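Q: I have 267 residues here and want to know how they pack in 3D. Can you give me a structure?
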Amino acid sequence: MQLPFAYAQAEPMQGMDGGQMQGMEPSPPQESRTPIPVLTDADRAAVFESHAGHQMPDRSINSFFLIDQLEWQDADKGSALRWEANGWIGTDTDRLLLRSEGERTNGVTKSAEVQALWGHAISPWWDVVSGVRQDFKPGAPQTWAALGLQGMAFYDLETQATAYLGEEGQSALRLKGDYDILLTNRLILQPTAEINLYGKNDPQRGTGSGLSDTDIGLRLRYEVRREFAPYIGVTWNRSYGKTADYAREEGEDRSETRLVLGVRMWF
């Protein structure tokens, strides 16, 4: 009868001289000669303790400047040049932030403002900001105190919510958001939205109380380099309530759709 293969290997074999030969080599050792130490709970706790709460922020001074929108717009009353830029300098936790935006139509400045804010990180993704905003147009120059929150929400949605308190008890609230949709590694579609609300009517500057105006945009950019991206897009602007009444008095439409061509750059 033929023995099973495994059994035949395990049995010693008789040599011609009556001695015995082993049918197989000794099996390899089951443990390493230099075993890896077992990971303990103390080891795990040490790793999480060293990284918890961002206890070791980067204290070096860094800076960033972004011209998010520098664009020509096909407006109903002629061509318009619009800009929106922001930048910062500071550490991971405290920064000086600068914001500016405005518009010129047919060579005349319709709106222009600059903000200087101090931002303090309250979490890895959110900053509290406070400072001043200076309006140059429309109307006479006006200074506002500013307090707000900025950061990322809902899967990289860039968000700003800023409240303003101006001269003679004027108040305002601005909500902004934008989101990058990567169609390819370099082709990016960016929806944007801005909402402005005011506490009371201001005929000199053409703003009414409550919901004043909205600006919705959709821009498609191509990043020739990460720092330089031309784009094309469209915007929908609309005014509401008393703001729309002021616009009609000036011969302007309540709502307007514009084709835009521009470039986005950062340093």
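Q: Anything worth noting?
A: Confidence is low (pLDDT under 50) at residues 1-22. The longest strand covers residues 108-123.
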